[in-house]
Structures are given as structure tokens and as C-alpha cells.
């Protein structure tokens, strides 16, 4: 089995601020960092560091930011054979973080808008593949790849982040839809139902997991509802916590863990991601230590 991630890859400019700026306000940062990021790349790194054979398909520009953007993927040993180099600039995100770990993020999509489903060959969408996607690349390309993956027998997980519309047949083709509470609220409004995992599951007819920050996570499937508490940690920066959750969940499901156990492991990884600056994905040994030390 293996994990294949189709999605975004960025260079993140992370600014530690005494407070998040109000509209029109300038806040000086005592320090900043340039780090690899992007939801797709973060989730691929998280899956690889958790031990899953992982490949990534996305796009970067032929510029200096590409090397920073790709550094995390390369360090984690992610297969980049399906990466596209395009004329558009490598995507870049400005990440503003306050002392409580809360953030504001702006993203220049750049090359992420050039990612194409055709970068993934049919042979990679077999029953031995778990395909993980997000919404920072064109929705039409996600839809095309999900349909092909369903036809090829691959298992398909979609993180609806950031929230954006997809055709009903595409949502209905998923093995699991993942959303945070804000994305779940948006989707519930679109579907005319509640924002809880059970409500979304009933409306879509597919398993749904909703991450709830400090309240943990909840999933609803045909077998019932699973609730997983969060691991208590001192948050430094919540950037990438959701990506750690998704990537480790994918790696856990890929190696055969049941959903409840996969969610607990994902929650531990997400908690660890909150204790460090930027989208820093934990390694398997770190996650296992937290799991073993927490009842």
C-alpha cells in the first residue's frame, strides 16, 4: 500500500507577532522564518514521517522559492516523480502568528493553479493506493482525479480545505471527507443541513470526519459515530496542525488501522505540530511517545 498526495506546495514566510494586525494596522515582527509549506506538501510530509511510502503530485515554478518549498518533501523522502515545473511562480504564503498560536494566512497560489490531474498516471490509481487531496489546487482537477481514482479502485480521502464547491457525484465518490469546523459549517450551509459529522454524513452518504481543534475530532460512518479527544499541549503555532492530522490519518489508514485508532494517532500528531513554529510535521517516534504517555 502507499499514499499519493495531489495538492499544493508553498514557501511559507512565517512572522511571529505580539498580536495579529487589525485592518490597516502594521505590526512589527521580532523574528521571521522562511519554511516549506502548502497543505498538499505538508500532508505528504506528515504521511511520510509517519512511515507511509508517500508520493506527491503538484507544481512549482522555476524560481528560488521552489527549492525552499520542496525541501520538506525531499527531507521526508517523498517521491517527486509526478512534480511539474511550470512558468508560474512558486506559491508563497504569509503566515502571521500571535503568542497564543493563533494565525492569519494569505496565500499567493501561483504554480498551484497549474497542478493537473494528468500528472498522475492511471497505474498509480490502483486498489493499492490511498489518494489524499485538498482544495488549494483547481477544483476541476481534483474532481477529475477523484473520478479516475474511483474508477481505478484507489481509496480516496479529501480534505475540504479551504472550502470550495465540488460536484455531488465527486463528493459521493469519497471514502472519507475531512473538514474542520469552519469548513463543515460552510458545507452544511451548501447542503442545507447541520455542520456536525453525523449531519454531513447523512446528507452526503459518505463517511465524514470533522476536526474541532481543542475539542478533538468526530467522525460519522455507516457503523456509527467516533469521537476522539484532543491531546493537551501548550500551543506555540497552530499552523499545519490540520495537515498533520490529515497526513497521519492517511498513513494510519494505509497500513490498516481502523478509523478510530487512526483518528487517535492523527490527533496526537496534530497536537505535536502545535508545539513548534511553522508547519512542522512530527515523526512517527514522537507521535508514538505521546500516544504511549497519554491514557
From TrEMBL:
Q: Which residues form the active site?
A: 243
SUPFAM superfamilies membership: Ribokinase-like
Which annotated residues bind substrate? 10-12, 38-42, 136, 243
Please cite one Gene Ontology biological process associated with this protein.
D-ribose catabolic process
| Subcellular localization, as worded in the UniProt entry | Cytoplasm
Domain (Carbohydrate kinase PfkB) ranges: 2-281
List the EC numbers from the record: 2.7.1.15
Which cofactor is essential here? Mg(2+)
Q: Which GO terms describe its molecular function?
A: ATP binding; metal ion binding; ribokinase activity
Record's GO cellular component terms: cytosol
Q: Work out whether the entry's keyword set contains Metal-binding.
A: yes
Explain what switches its activity on or off, per the activity regulation comment. Activated by a monovalent cation that binds near, but not in, the active site. The most likely occupant of the site in vivo is potassium. Ion binding induces a conformational change that may alter substrate affinity.
Descriptive protein name: Ribokinase
